[in-house]
Design brief:
- It is a single chain.
- By secondary structure, the protein is an alpha+beta fold.
- It has a single domain, classed as Nuclear Transport Factor 2, Chain: A (Roll).
- About 25% of the residues lie in helices and about 25% in strands.
- The chain is globular, with a radius of gyration of 16 Å.
- The two termini are about 25 Å apart.
Length: about 110
């Protein structure tokens, strides 16, 4: 990962911090950046939140890196099965609206 985007590994936790398990994610944007929030939902609904703010070009490169890793995973381990009806998976990923420069809400 760091070879493709120098410094991204440090941005995503390669700076000596403990890794965080996330089972919930939210993505928002405004005209200048994309924000990703990763949460760990516990049985009592507490959240541990990490927020990463990226310029659009880095977000787009991250999408490609994730796609490459998922492809490698599926080649080595096996397919990741997704449900035919994706409506049930919406609870895993929230979408929030955020104000853009003009004050209007912008959703992803």
């Amino acid at each position: 990962m760091s070879e493709a985007l120098p410094g991204l590994a440090q941005l995503l936790g390669g700076n000596g911090q403990e890794p965080m398990y996330a089972n919930h994610a939210e993505v928002t944007h405004n005209s200048m950046e994309l924000k990703m929030r990763f949460n760990k939902m516990t049985p009592v609904f507490h959240k541990t939140e990490v927020e990463i703010i990226l310029p659009p070009i880095v977000a787009k490169a991250l999408i490609q890196l994730l796609k490459d890793e998922v492809d490698t995973y599926e080649r080595e381990i096996g397919p990741i099965y997704m449900p035919d009806d994706m409506s049930g998976i919406k609870g895993l990923f929230g979408v929030e609206e955020e104000e853009g420069q003009d004050g209007k809400a912008e959703g992803v």
